[in-house]
Model the fold of this input.
Amino acid sequence: MTKEEKAVVIDNLTAQLNEYPHFYLTDIETLNAAQTALLRRKCFESEIKLVVVKNTLLEKALEKAEKADAELVNVLEGPTSVMFAKTAKAPAVVIKEFRKTCAKPVLKAAFVEECVYVGDNNLDALCNIKSREELIGEIISLLQSPAKNVISALQANAG
Done:
């Protein structure tokens, strides 16, 4: 790969790191072609972009995008694939669902909601993260509950 080709790859990765607010670093090394195709299909269905990258190019892209956390850089060993997502928990759910049939993918690290999660042991916590829309819905329902109680009490007394 020439220097120019590497620069193009780094620029593309940097653009994706800036476009998607959440990304997961995973290891899918031992998956065969059929399993990899199935994983890519599940990612596509969940609006996740799966990219296999060289660690050195990803490290340079992380630095360029100003997301080069020391913990993220430390996990860049061995084969690495990146799952880019708009929804924070979508990749975690796909990984957990896919691992019911395979031992991979293994979560190396995740950059979610401006926080870094390192290690496969954080997969359950990442699956339980609520999206912005879910949190807003909960807040609205909590705010509506007292108002509904007041209205029902007034209607009961008026009747």
Q: What stands out?
A: The mean pLDDT is 85.
